[in-house]
Amino acid sequence: MTKKAQTDAIKSTPIFQSLNERLGARLDLYFWICFGLLFLMALLFFDPKVSIGGDDSEYLNRAYQFIHNGKFPTFQGPLYPIVMGLTISVTGLNLVLIKFTSIIFMLVHFWLFFQTFRKHLTPVLMVGILFILSINASMLYFASSTFTESFFLMIQSLFLFSFEKCFISGWKEKYTLKEDYKRFLLLGFTLFLMAITKNIGLTAIIGTSLFFVVRLKWMALIYTIIVFILCQVLFIGIKTYVFEVKDRQVSSQGNTLMMKHPYDESIGKEDFGGYVDRVVINSKEYLSRHFTLIYGLNSEIKPGVSGFITLFIYVILFTGFILLFRQSEFWTFNGIYLIASCGITFIVLQTYWSQERLILVYTPLILVYLLYSIYYIIDNHSPKLKWLFTGIFILFIAANLIRTAKKLPQTIDSLGHYLKGETTYGFTPDWINYFGMSKWITSNLPEGTLVGCRKPGMAFLYSGGKEFYGIWRVPSDNPEELYNQLKDAGVTHVMMASLRLDPNRNTGRTINTVRRFLSIIHEAYPDKIEFVHKIGEQEPVFLYKLN
């Protein structure tokens, strides 16, 4: 493919010629306006709380253990806890300062995203998409959360930016190690960063390899994989011989992903038919439900799932990919990366989870590819339907703006209460009692005690940094086995909370993992569990001592 053919494919006749010329003349200015808008909106959407899901607090727990106790993070990707550990070494456990780093990650992602796509989108599309992303309520929420999404978006954009600079803008028919070693070093290193940020980041090496294969760039493929492997070997060496860690990153999560149900091993492991069902169900959940909800095209109260919308998105994306496959190296690469990332995501994710954050990191790329595909198809094959693209583009902008405007008053109100010193504002009584007990434990139990509980990351943060032992499931009905499990782990006390099964209302039903764990022990050995303290009359929290 010649460079001219690629350029012609990218710079097809614009829909709004005059508007494109005006925006294109000051594209950098409009970017900085959107950049400033993103920063302002991120401050207005700033949420100083951690989520009740617990994963975000667990990241900080692992970060704290790494920087203070030298405990290397092995579960999920280690890079984010390592980086946050360095942050905590400066900020301590100040949630506001810690969360502000997520805003920085989001801003860096935004800049890299712009630099990557600016040459491959018309100015109207580029500015419109930047505006959508700068005011998107979901992106703004994760811009102040301590989940990995903001950080992963930054690393993913760094990877795409590096590939665009090294192998798209500088496209060559033949690559050599002598002339192009800097390209391979940069790409291989960013692929390594993707892999150690999230397990799903390994799809970047799969997508890159597939692209080099279909473009017959064998030497580029070999050199890139060699650099990636060298980075991995060095990393594993440091982890093994410096931190004495033998656990593998992927295997620590792999067993859960292969099970039919993530919290019930007795059901067994997934079979081929089950994986096919996962792809179908997850496609509907994440494309027709979460993607459309993120961009304001679905009901906020009860978001619907539609097979038709899922099929429509797939048809547009694959049609665009097929048409652009021989026209543009850039869009071919992004298409292959999207197919690899979303495809593997839909295969490995348990349908039980269905959380928007699990697809959020790919939605900017889905949005860009979807809109550009519609634009390209209409502009090159049905020019009379340009009004249809205009309507779709305006719909995305308007729906996104309306959703964000509805959420803004609530976020500002919550932030205002926090600034007044109401640090638990927005939490329900079950969690307020939980935090109260966590603080009581720190103040009243002697040094060396270890308390078992559900959501240990939350207890860790709101106790001021005390380590807790996580009780996630009841692995047996044998009371002696359960008791020994706790004692062998060094557990001296257990906190039993009344955490709501439905987080939005008190139905009387609670997450009863700890209650079942203790009740089995108590029935056989009543003297081994001793009541210590209680906080709260409604939705109370109990503390017990293990004798």
Rg on CA atoms, Å? 25 Å
Number of helices: 23
Instruction: Name the helicity range.
Output: 55-70%
Question: Into which percentage range does the β-strand content fall?
Answer: under 5%
Estimated structural class: mainly alpha
Report the order of strands and helices: HHHHHHHHHHHHHHHHHHHHEHEHEHEE
Quaternary form: single chain
Beginning-to-end CA distance, first to last residue: 74 Å
How is the largest sheet built, in terms of strand order? 2-1-3-5-4
**Overall residue-averaged pLDDT value:** 90
Which sheet architecture does the biggest sheet show?
A: 5 strands, mixed
Instruction: Give the low-pLDDT segments.
Output: 1-15
Count of discrete structural domains: 2
* Overall spatial form: globular
Structural commentary:
The protein has 547 residues and is mainly α. Helix content is 64%, strand content 4%. Strands 2-1-3-5-4 form a five-stranded mixed sheet, with helices on both faces. Helix 3 packs parallel to helix 7, helix 11 crosses helix 16 (329-348) and helix 18 runs antiparallel to helix 19. The longest helix has 34 residues, at 386-419.
Short description:
The chain has 547 residues and is mainly alpha-helical. It has helices at 3-10, 17-25, 27-44, 55-69, 79-91, 95-117, 123-134, 137-142, 149-168, 177-197, 203-214, 218-241, 251-258, 272-294, 307-324, 329-348, 357-360, 363-381, 386-419, 429-444, 456-462, 479-488, 513-524; strands at residues 451-453, 468-470, 493-496, 529-535, 541-546. The protein has 23 helices and five strands.
